[in-house]
Design goal:
- The structure holds 2 protein chains of 2 kinds.
- By secondary structure, chain A is an all-alpha fold.
- Chain A has 2 domains: about 110 residues, Orthogonal Bundle (Rna Polymerase Sigma Factor, Chain: A); about 80 residues, Winged helix-like DNA-binding domain superfamily/Winged helix DNA-binding domain (Arc Repressor Mutant, subunit A).
- Chain A is about 70% helix and about 0% strand.
- In chain A, helix 3 packs across helix 4 and helix 7 packs antiparallel against helix 10.
- By secondary structure, chain B is an alpha+beta fold.
- In chain B, about 35% of the residues lie in helices and about 20% in strands.
- Chain B contains 6 helices and 10 strands, in the order αααααβαβββββββββ.
- In chain B, strands 1-8-5-4-2 form a 5-stranded antiparallel β-sheet, covered by helices on one side. In chain B, strands 3-10-9-6-7 form a 5-stranded antiparallel β-sheet, covered by helices on one side.
- In chain B, helix 1 crosses helix 2.
- Chains A and B meet through helix 3, helix 4, helix 5, helix 7 and helix 8 of A and helix 1, helix 3, helix 4, strand 2 and strand 4 of B.
Chain lengths: ~200, ~290
């Protein structure tokens, strides 16, 4: 994996311009990241209406925090995903009831066909995908339920029958493995003072 | 493995838990303590790893509905339109802010507890907002009383719900986290959130499901954990009452600078509040992820 790809987006970063109030950059930001944020929100929301509200909140967060984006610390897309996850997890915590997992998954099966979508090809994500594919199946399952479907630890316990401690351990090891990977691959570039 | 290494490993584990789900109050306190002890630890790396792994598990972008795109464009126009005007009139804002500051500093502190509760406004009078009062202001001068104060008088902010909404519109860098139930039965059904603006050191607590307190006996007390401060001595955010309404909103202001908020904790304390909480009755926790 090249560090060039690890540390930056394929596209020119928009957020510094967004932070400066550049209206064209703001419009491009919605165009570029809207579909990604929308996909994440659909997965981690109870209803389509809830997802729409979440997307609006997430973009407010993006605009508020655009000035904090540091391209030496990762890609813009990942930065946006972090903000989206924070907001969505917060919203989920506030919700007192959730749809059943099965119903939720069924709803999301109605998303547009993959042929109309662009898969993520970033190097860091590919690398993480590679790491993920080599994890034991139970760990893959638990991580998918947590990350992709936004289940809480307790919900994963109910869904899988695994003990809470096991669920936490599998998730922690998986995420920390990715962090170790990122640290290992980004340090040489940082050491060289490379920022893009 | 050294003690420090063990602490950092535990910190990383808790940071993963926080990035994926809510920490329970006990874990949140432990997390805050470890963060305070290891300021070099940066949970952003953990969030970043979770985000990357999230994308790697198969997020496929989906075109947004036209109506949503239109709403975002409208939001953007409002947000950046306001911001540009703010920059243009920053001199005026500075002057206005100084006036507000003077009014705030010079106004008398120490609201009677009964007037601070969240209650429906009487039809014949302007009701005071929900505001956090300095705990035991008269009894402990120079200690708890110096750490927080009410944000506004009853005449200028009659509606805390509307005021919170205005606060969110007017402050660009707002820290916002959801409340999770604490260990005390009082917080069993609590939900809601805290919003916090570091620049003004002000914020709003919003609760659903927090039961009314008997203000003659006990009050809720807010504590703000700051990464730059010793975890044993969180900033005292003041005491407040709630009436058990569906959507209680409480304004607060910290007079001690909170630089890196880690956690906002609500405890149940004796009337007037305490200087140091024994943390036995934690009603709600909003922790940084």
């Amino acid at each position: 994996m090249s560090n060039r790809h690890l540390l930056s987006d394929t596209d020119e970063p928009l957020l510094p311009q967004v932070a400066g109030g550049n209206h064209s950059a703001v419009a491009e930001c919605i165009r570029r990241y809207g579909p990604l944020v929308w996909a994440i929100a659909l997965r981690l929301s109870m209803t389509k209406e809830d997802a729409e509200d979440a997307v609006q909140e997430i973009f407010m967060d993006i605009w508020r925090n655009a000035g904090k984006f540091d391209r030496t610390r990762g890609s813009e897309k990942v930065f946006v995903t972090i903000l989206a996850r924070r907001r969505l997890i917060d919203r989920m915590r506030r919700q007192k009831s959730r749809l059943s997992v099965e119903q939720s998954l069924d709803d999301h099966d109605e998303l547009p066909a993959p042929a109309t979508m662009r898969a993520e090809r970033d190097a860091e994500i590919e690398e993480a995908r590679n790491v993920f594919s080599h994890l034991p199946v139970p760990q893959q399952r638990v991580m998918t339920l947590s990350l992709l479907h936004g289940m809480s630890h307790a919900e994963i316990v109910t869904h899988t029958g695994l003990p809470l401690g096991t669920v936490k351990t599998l998730l922690r090891r998986g995420i920390l493995r990715v962090r170790a990977l990122l640290t290992a691959t980004s340090e040489p570039a940082k050491a060289r003072g490379r920022v893009s | 493995m050294s003690e420090d290494e063990r602490a950092l490993a535990r910190l990383a584990d808790l940071a993963v838990d926080a990035a994926l789900d809510a920490l329970d109050p006990k874990e949140a306190l432990e997390y805050a303590a470890l963060r305070a002890k290891h300021p070099e630890f940066d949970p952003y790396d953990i969030e970043q790893a979770a985000a990357i792994q999230h994308l790697a598990t198969g997020v496929i972008p989906v075109p947004m509905p036209e109506s949503l795109s239109a709403r975002l464009a409208t939001d953007a126009q409002r947000f950046f339109g306001r911001r540009i005007r703010w920059v243009a009139y920053s001199g005026w804002w500075a002057a206005a802010a100084s006036v507000v500051f003077c009014v705030w500093v010079l106004r008398p502190h120490g609201y009677p507890a009964a007037s601070l509760a969240a209650r429906p406004p009487p039809p014949s009078a302007v009701a005071p907002p929900n505001v956090v009062a300095p705990p035991s202001a008269a009894a402990t001068p120079g200690t708890a009383a110096t750490t927080s104060t009410a944000v506004a008088s009853s005449s200028d902010v009659p509606d805390p719900v509307a005021d919170r909404a205005r606060f969110l519109k007017e402050h660009r860098w707002v820290w916002q986290r959801a409340f999770a139930p604490g260990t005390d039965p009082a917080g069993q059904l609590v939900s809601g959130d805290v919003v916090w603006d570091a620049k003004t050191q002000t914020g709003y607590l919003r609760f659903q499901g927090l039961p009314a307190n008997n203000a003659n006996v006990e009050q809720y007390q807010l504590w703000i954990f700051d990464a730059r401060r010793d975890e044993r001595f969180p900033v005292d955010g003041g005491v407040f009452n709630v009436s058990g309404g569906r959507d209680e909103v409480v304004a607060f202001k910290s007079k001690l600078d909170v630089e890196v908020p880690l956690m906002f904790v609500v405890t149940v304390e004796r009337r007037g509040g305490v200087v140091v909480s024994d943390r036995q009755r934690v009603a709600a926790v909003a922790a940084s992820g």
